[in-house]
C-alpha cells in the first residue's frame, strides 16, 4: 500500500507528535508498505544536519529520518519552505531528502492510498 505522511510541525515542539509519526513510518515500512514522507512548514528542519535534539530530549529525529531513508522511505521536502520556515532557514537539506514542490506533493496525494498528517 502507498502511504503518504505529511509532517508540518517543528521537530522539537515539546510534544512527541513528530516522533510518533516517524515511529509509525518505520512500522509501515516494516510491514511492506511504500512509505512516502513530505516535510513542510517548520518540519523541514528535521531534514537538516544542523538540527539537533534539545538538551534532555532522548530522540534524534533527524537521525530517525535518515534511518527511514536507509530503510526505503522516500522523503521530499518543500523547497519554498527552505527559506521561509524553521529555525534553520536557508540551511541545506541532507542527502536523501529531496528538494521538492507543491506540485509533487499534489501528485503524491492523488497517487497514495492513505494520506496522514502530523
List keywords for this structure.
21% strand, 118 residues, single chain, 5-stranded parallel β-sheet, alpha/beta
Structure commentary:
- The chain is of the alpha/beta class and about 120 residues long.
- The chain is built from four helices and five strands; from the N terminus they run βαβαβαβαβ.
- Strands 4-3-2-1-5 form a five-stranded parallel sheet, with helices on both faces.
- Helix 1 (about 15-30) packs parallel to helix 2 (about 60-70).
- The radius of gyration is 13 Å and the shape is globular.
Reported for the largest beta sheet, the result is: 5 strands, parallel
Q: Class by helix and strand content?
A: alpha/beta
Tell me the strand percentage band: 15-25%
Number of helices: 4
Shape: globular
How many β-strand stretches? 5
Q: Helix fraction?
A: 25-40%
Mean pLDDT: 96
**Poorly predicted runs:** none
- Strand order within the widest sheet? 4-3-2-1-5
- Give the end-to-end Cα distance, rounded to a whole number of Å: 19 Å
C-alpha-based Rg, rounded: 13 Å
SSE ordering: EHEHEHEHE
